[in-house]
Each structure stands twice: as structure tokens, then as C-alpha cells.
Amino acid sequence: MTNRDGTPVWYELMTDAPDAAQDFYGKVMGWTFDKPSGGMERDYRTFAADGAGVGGVMKAPDGASFAPIWTIYFGVSDVDAMAAKVERLGGSIHMAPQDIPGVGRFAFVADPQGAMFYLMRGDSDADSTAFDQMAPGHCCWNELVTSDQKAALDFYGALFGWTKTGAMPMPGMGDYTFIGRDDVDMFGAMMDAPVPGTPPAWHVAFAVADIDTTKAAVESGGGKVREGPMELPGDQGDWMIQADDPQGAKVMFVGKRAPAAAP
Fold it and tell me: What InterPro entries does the record point to (predicted)?
């Protein structure tokens, strides 16, 4: 793929119940799923929005010590060099660089505070379609909740060239710091964990056509809405819900609200 270093290129749900997850997200998001042949020993299925690839669902290893989680793949031109750089900057490698035949090369790493993410160099030269802030079904926001956002910004700035593009004060919680690059404004943000001791982690938000329809689908599908719908700052008219899927993976949804539904 030709995406620049640090571009989000794929999203992956690791869960102990991939069949149930596929049923839930298929109904909530309208994603279509496919099981690619070859290249993966573990149960893996990809999903797409209107035919455009967005991510995958993977069966968690037996005995995994972590809860079901969404993770982000960041595109890089050289996985091995970038993994080595992660270590030099104080991060760690959980899975050394390796190939998936016919797919690409990847590594599973963590930043110095412990938030995990993937590095990926796909075999295809086509740009990723996974992140698109304007298209329902695609990821529209990448959010890092961390124990030290200044240190995190220094790390990702040195690793990927990200910069602080702005900030929004949150009463009693410090700044909500927007991150981007010189040609990609605000593809995500980082914030200090509201509860001390919360393990640092990346969280993702998916764009939906109607936030209230999505809320109803989450609840009828066995998920839990933890907060929202809440109106987001700005003049875009976007609303967000924070939810847990039926297996406990945290996920966010962002979309418009019909005028009659707004308070």
C-alpha cells in the first residue's frame, strides 16, 4: 500500500466469539463478511462497507488474558525498521515482524505507556479504504486513552511524524488533544485516562448514518450503550455513543440525528 507512515489502514476486532461478533456488527453496521482462504491459522474473517475493505475479526488465542478489543493497524513502508524504532523510543514488541502470505508484513507492538497497535506493510499498492470520516461503515476517529499524553505525543511524533493540531479543555480532565499530520488534519485525538490506573489503549469510532437507529440496534443486539447519544462540538451536527459489544469490546459510533429525535 502507498499510505504514508502512521496512516490508519485496517481495524481488527480480537474476540472470543467471532460468530456472535459477526452477527452483531453485521446488524448494527451493515458490514458484509468474508473468510479469506490461506495465510491465517486462526479463525479470521474480513468485513467491508459497500464493498470497501475496513477490517477483520479474529478469534482470540485460547486462554488470552485480555478482554475482547479493537486494535488499529498503522501503515508503514518498512515494518522491520519501524518495529526497531518503536523499541528505541521506549516501546515494546509483542509480536515480531512476520509475513502473511499474499497479504503483507506486520508486527504487533506497544507504545511506552502500553497501548498496543499494529505496524503493517500491505502487498498491494492500493491505498487503504478503512478510514473515511465521511462514509458510513468506515472508521471515522482514532482515540488514544493514555496515562501520559505528553509522553505519548512525543513518542508518536518521533515514530510517525504526528503533530498536535489543536486541543479542547475538558473540565477536571486536562486537554483533549487533536492529532494529525501536515496533510491529514485531525484523524484522531488523545486524552488522559479519566480513571487512574486504566490500561492505556487505542479506541475506534465508526461512522453511521443515524445515531438513534444505531443505538437501538446495539441494544437489541445484546450490546450496552455506556454513554450517549451526546452531541459533539463543532458545526457538523454529529452525535456519538460509547458502547460495549456483547462480548465486552469497547467501541464508539458517530452519526447524524434526525431533527425530531434531538432534545
Answer: Anthracycline_SecMetBiosynth, Glyas_Bleomycin-R_OHBP_Dase, Glyas_Fos-R_dOase_dom, VOC_core
User: Tell me, what amino acid is at 43?
Assistant: D
Beta bridge mates, 170: 174
**Is residue 178 packed enough to be buried (19+ CB in 10 Å), middle (13-18) or exposed (0-12)?**
middle
DSSP letter at 127?
A: P
Which residue from 240, 245, 171, 162 is spatially nearest to 206, judged by alpha carbons?
240
State the cell numbers at 6: 502512521
94 shares a domain with 12? yes
CA distance 189 to 245: 22
Query: Which amino acid is it at 110?
Result: A
Is residue 86 located within the same domain as residue 164?
A: no
How many helices (H) does the chain have, and how many strands (E)? 4, 16
Q: Are residues 43 and 18 in contact, defined by beta-carbon separation less than 8 angstroms? A: yes
Q: What is the pLDDT along the chain (263 residues), one digit of tens a residue?
A: 556 788 999 999 999 999 999 999 999 999 999 987 655 567 899 999 999 999 999 998 776 666 799 999 999 999 999 999 999 999 999 999 999 888 889 999 999 999 999 999 988 878 889 999 989 999 999 999 999 999 999 999 999 999 999 889 888 778 999 999 766 677 999 999 988 888 999 999 999 999 999 999 999 999 999 998 999 887 678 999 999 999 999 999 999 998 765 55
Cell 452477527 found at: 23
pTM for the structure as a whole: 0.92
* Domains: count for the chain: 2
The answer to whether residue 261 sits within a structural domain is no
Q: Residue type at 257?
A: R
Is position 132 within any domain? no
Biggest CA pair distance of the chain: 54
Specify the 3-state DSSP secondary structure of 137: coil
Cell 505525543 locates to: 153
